[in-house]
Amino acid sequence: MSAARISAVMVSYRTGPVLFDSIRAVLSDPDIAELILVNHDNPTNVTVRLDTLDSAEPRLRVIHTGANLGFARGCNIGARAASGDLLLFLNPDTLIGRGTAALLASTVDALDVPAIVGARILNPDGSEQRGARRGELTLLSAALSFSGLARLLPGVRDFHRENEPLPAGPVEMPSVSGAAMMMSRASYRRLNGFDERYFLHVEDLDICKRTWRVGGKVVFEPRASLVHVGSTSCVNLVFVEWNKAAGLRRYFRTHAGTPARALLWLAGPLLTFALLSRAVLIRSGQRVVQTRQRLRARARLAQRRRSTGQ
């Protein structure tokens, strides 16, 4: 493993109970020298528990911001407070195992500055999660991917690459996921950190794009894997998808060519509508499932009462 000290950085806003599982997983890895956790206005009971852990665990430092300042800004706050030569950015609902951070570090060390290395991200069932390895984001690739046409049209390569054969070792990739991303402090400084104009989502695609533009490399490391639980936050899905759409519009305004930017005035509202519609559909589906579960529970309770004569 690298002799450099590894600092893990997490940003948490109403993550849910899995946050503490994620913290324990990081602190169980002796290769990680410290965990900087940026607390973006979690509930009081969570904040009190974080402070208790902070007092008891010398490798944990909790920074309270008092408000939800956004993921990119939170990452920058954590990076500035970190002391390590290597920065490992992790989502607060990831479960990292021993050896993963060291493997990422050894891959980063083999690359010139600037460089970013992303881990293979798994679902709890062990399947590869969407987003860990991705192609180049363009208006066309976004439209084909979000519509599902990329998986239906022959000869079209999907923006998301999780269904492609898994490479045996590190491989260059247009973009990797900010849910599990490592870079050296020198790379972070060369890139000026995360762009804080992105509030939630797309900041990882942006920093990968900027890495390529200054002659650096973005690498997917398939041998380093961790579990991303996902969907643990109580944050409204419409809020999430709205910010995702805003991030995508900003990305295209910043990185797309002139013809694509000209199309953005039409594509932007359609993209926002599509993402918000998806959020509504997902939420509606969740409510249907919850209603069915409540009805089944009531039916079981009524049957139990009848059988006991109550």
Model description:
The chain has helices spanning 18-27, 44-56, 71-81, 100-109, 139-147, 185-190, 203-213, 237-255, 258-308, and strands at 6-12, 32-39, 60-64, 86-90, 94-96, 115-122, 133-134, 171-172, 175-176, 180-184, 217-228. It is of the alpha/beta class. The strands form two sheets. Strands 1, 2, 3, 4, 5, 6, 8, 10 and 11 form a nine-stranded mixed beta sheet that branches. A two-stranded antiparallel ribbon has the order 7-9. β1 (6-12), α1 and β2 form a beta-alpha-beta unit. The chain starts with 5 loop residues before the first strand and ends with a helix. The relative contact order is 0.14. The mean pLDDT is 86.
Short descriptors:
single chain, 310 residues, globular, 9-stranded mixed β-sheet, two-stranded antiparallel sheet
Topology record:
Layout: E1 6-12, H1 18-27, E2 32-39, H2 44-56, E3 60-64, H3 71-81, E4 86-90, E5 94-96, H4 100-109, E6 115-122, E7 133-134, H5 139-147, E8 171-172, E9 175-176, E10 180-184, H6 185-190, H7 203-213, E11 217-228, H8 237-255, H9 258-308
Parallel strand pairs: 1-2, 1-4, 2-3, 6-11
Antiparallel strand pairs: 4-10, 5-11, 6-10, 7-9, 8-11
